[in-house]
Amino acid sequence: MKTSRSENFGFALLFVAGAVCFGACAVGVEDGDAVESDGGVTQKDSGRTSSGTSGTSGTSGTSGTSGTSGNTSSGSTDAGPADTGVVVDAGPADTGPADTGGGGAGCTDTLLVNEILTTGAGKETGFEWVEIYNPNSCAKSFGSYKLVYRSADGPTDGTLFNGATSSLTVPAGGYALIGSATVPSTDGTLANGMKDTGGSVGIVFGTTRIDTVGWGTATVANSETKAATAPPEAQSIARSPNGRDTNNNSTDFEVAASPTPGAAN
C-alpha cells in the first residue's frame, strides 16, 4: 500500500508534537508542578514527595485532668495551750491595803453613845459613866473623836474625854467605857460630871457632832427629836434594843434598872 506524500508529512508532525509534549510534561514534573492523581497530590519539591490522601486532622486529645497537688494542706496545727477564753492577769500582785469591810454596818465613822449612868446609889456623885458602841465591822481608833457634854439648855460643848490624848480603839461590834475615877474597868476617865435631872452628851468627829443623847430637861436643840427619860439613881438609860438609832432619843432609849457597862444592853 502506498501512502501519499501528504499523509507521511502529517504523521511526522504528530510524532514531533508528541515528543515535544512529552518533554514539556517531564520538565513540568521536574520543576515541581503538581499533578493530581487519584484525588491525591504528588509534590516533587526539594526532593520530598507527598503522596496519598491528606488524612483528616486527628481530634485533639482531651487535656488530661491536672493531678491533685501532691501535698494536701491540712492547716497548721496549733500546739499551744488550750484556749480557755479567760484573760490571765500576769501583772504584779495587788499590794494595796486589805479590805477590812464586811457585811452588816460596813466600816464608817459612826460611833454611838449606847448607855449613860448619871448618878450612883443614894445620888452618889462621882459615879458616872458613858458607854460608847462601835456598830461597824472594823475597829475604830478614837483618836479623831471627842466625848462632849452640854447642860440641859447650854449652847456650848465641854469636853468630857478627848481621844487625841489617848490610844483608845473601840473594837468592831464592841464597846468602850468612859467613867469617873471611882468607876472600875474603864477605858478612859471623864473630865467632869453630868447632871442627873437633865443634860446632853454627844460624840464629835473632827468638828462634826455625829451623835447626841439628851435626857430629862434637855431642850430639843440638845437632843435628837426629843429627850429620853431622866433615869433614877443607880439606873441608866440604854438603847433598846442594843445599838438602836432612829434619831429619836425618847424612843431609842429606855431606863435600865440593871445597867450593863461595857456590854450589850
Brief description of this entry?
This protein has 265 residues and is an alpha+beta fold. Among the domains are: 35 residues; 145 residues, Immunoglobulin-like. The protein is built from 2 helices and 14 strands, in the order αβββββββββββββαβ.
Describe the SSE topology.
Blueprint: H1 5-30, E1 35-37, E2 40-42, E3 112-117, E4 129-133, E5 140-141, E6 145-151, E7 158-162, E8 169-170, E9 175-179, E10 188-189, E11 198-205, E12 208-216, E13 236-239, H2 249-252, E14 253-256
Parallel strand pairs: 9-10
Antiparallel strand pairs: 1-2, 3-4, 3-13, 4-9, 5-8, 6-7, 6-11, 11-12, 13-14
Structural features, described:
With 265 residues, the protein is of the alpha+beta class. Among the domains are: 8-42; 112-256, Immunoglobulin-like, CATH 2.60.40. The chain has two helices and 14 strands; from the N terminus they run H-E-E-E-E-E-E-E-E-E-E-E-E-E-H-E. The chain has helices spanning 5-30, 249-252, and strands spanning 35-37, 40-42, 112-117, 129-133, 140-141, 145-151, 158-162, 169-170, 175-179, 188-189, 198-205, 208-216, 236-239, 253-256. The strands form four sheets. Strands 10-9-4-3-13-14 form a six-stranded mixed β-sheet. A four-stranded antiparallel β-sheet has the order 7-6-11-12, with no helix packed on it. It has a two-stranded antiparallel sheet with strand order 1-2. A hairpin with a 2-residue loop joins strand 11 (198-205) and strand 12 (208-216). The longest helix has 26 residues, at 5-30.
